Amino acid sequence: SKKQPCLPFTIQVIKLIHEQLDLSDPMSAAVFACLTTTFYTTARLGEFTTPSLTTYNPAIHPSIALVHTETDCNGLMSTIFKLPKTKSSPHGEDVLWSVQHGPSDPHFAWTNHLNINNPSPNQHIFAYQQNKGKITTMVPLTQKTFLTTINKALMAGGQQKMTGHSIRIGATLEYLLQGVPFDAMKVKGRWASDTFRIYLWKHTQILTPYMQAVPDTHTVLIHHTINMPPVR
After folding, report:
1. What is the pLDDT of residues 67-101, one digit of tens each?
2. Has residue 6 been placed in a domain?
3. How confident is the model over 133-179, as pLDDT tens digits?
4. Using CA atoms, how far apart are residues 176 and 222, in angstroms rounded to an integer?
5. Is residue 179 part of a domain?
6. Would you state the pLDDT for residue 103?
7. Which of 54, 103, 142, 230 has an alpha carbon 20 to 30 Å from 72's alpha carbon atom?
8. Structural domain of residue 80, as residue ranges?
């Protein structure tokens, strides 16, 4: 049987998750901050989570110390995250987001996470407080914990489970629908030119239904993908 394509995360999906989570809970606060940061930076989920509780390595995984803000000449602030090592760059890359409107705002989620969990500079960026009896420890956010929490919230809201890759697909879709040019999106998502075209082509089936409401963007998508070779 043919594998079903990943459904993209959308702003509405993030709002639904926001409604289902108790953001005063340390783990939920970290998970929601990770979700909104991964989404609005167009990052890979594995860049902001760890494989297990014991594999956090600040030389590979981002820490609190690697986050800073910058303000441009128009007074607009961006929060920048240094990823120490990535799939495409062993020397690391920067990703960023800006304040957004509504419950999906990554700035709100990030600030809430810091207030609830108060991770120290050398700890994992989404480390959260875990209580064991009378002892409270800080643990890194694993990909498994993230996905379990997100999918529990989705199912409680009457939605189907989603994958981590759905976040990157959804972020790409959201920015394109907002009118971000394809070339700018390629840079934000840290794709090489041909890689981005292949990525769009592979996900045309997913993106097209959403984009048809924005004819100009849909036309550009078709232009970018129409001459792609078949997948082997």
Report:
1. 999 988 888 889 999 999 888 788 888 999 999 99
2. no
3. 889 999 999 999 999 999 999 999 999 999 888 888 888 878 777 77
4. 13
5. no
6. 94
7. 103
8. 11-167
DSSP strand pairing (128-132 vs 93-98): unpaired
Distance CA 166, CA 30 (A): 19
Q: What φ, ψ does residue 97 adopt, rounded to 5°?
A: -140, 165
- Using the predicted structure, report yes or no on whether residue 230 has a pLDDT greater than 50: no
pLDDT at 151: 96
CA 107, 113, 118, 120 torsion: positive or negative? negative
How many domains, the chain? Answer: 1
Q: Max CA-CA distance within the chain?
A: 61
Residue count of the chain:
232
Strand pairing class (67-71; 77-83):
antiparallel
Residue 211 amino acid letter = M
CB 136 within 8 A of CB 177: no
- Check residue 206 and give its pLDDT: 53
Write the burial class of residue 135 (CB in 10 Å: 0-12 exposed, 13-18 middle, 19+ buried): exposed
Residue 150 near residue 32, CB atoms below 8 Å: no
Residue 229 within any structural domain of the chain: no
Question: Is residue 186 assigned to a domain?
Answer: no
Rounded Cα–Cα distance for residues 82 and 20 (Å): 30
Q: Is 158 helix (H, G, I), strand (E, B) or coil?
A: coil
Phi, psi of 145 (to 5 degrees): -60, -40
* Residue 32: CATH number of its domain: 1.10.443.10
